[in-house]
């Protein structure tokens, strides 16, 4: 499977933090004074109080903007940090990439003094509600089935957590998988797909026929007729969840 050293070269172009999602993450962090971002990528959603980022890919680290928190190369399962190193640890849309989920969550709990915040998604809801994987790209959905972890399992590993739905705005500026739910033509853009691990790691061959059907449905107006109700919404809940664990 391709890694982010291979996939991440243009990541910063399409994966910019959305201010509405950023506000929800910031509120979940609460009044903590310092934060470590694990699986940090290019640094999206890092609040000013971030003191360190941990990221395995040098390609992703190289795209962090000037003025970002310092970054070290490392993996969640073996954080290069002492016990109780920080008030809070956040891990955003990253746990599905880890090779050892339980070990990674143990490390988050070991390093955080007060709080762990994890952004993930509920695969069952995602499959049922997100038209792209449900109607056009079932092979991509099947790929996610192999790596998605139920929120209930994550909550168990965290030792308990509250769960918040994260609605996706229709004009979301962070190009993750469901960001373009009301802008379907975006999924036909290879650069957009390169920033979505679900599509980039599934591979073009597996999704080519589905994308061809989507292009045809957009050209004929079938997509818009079928999803007229979606076009009236400002946000949608397709299963993204913020888990907040107080230690």
How would you describe this protein?
There is one protein chain. This protein has a single domain, classed as Vaccinia Virus protein VP39 (Rossmann fold), CATH 3.40.50. Strand 2, helix 4 and strand 3 form a beta-alpha-beta unit. The two termini are 35 Å apart. The strands form two sheets. The protein has a seven-stranded mixed β-sheet, with helices on both faces. It has a two-stranded antiparallel sheet with strand order 7-8. It is globular and about 60 Å long. 40% of the residues are buried. The model has no long low-confidence stretch (mean pLDDT 94). The chain has 247 residues and is of the alpha/beta class.
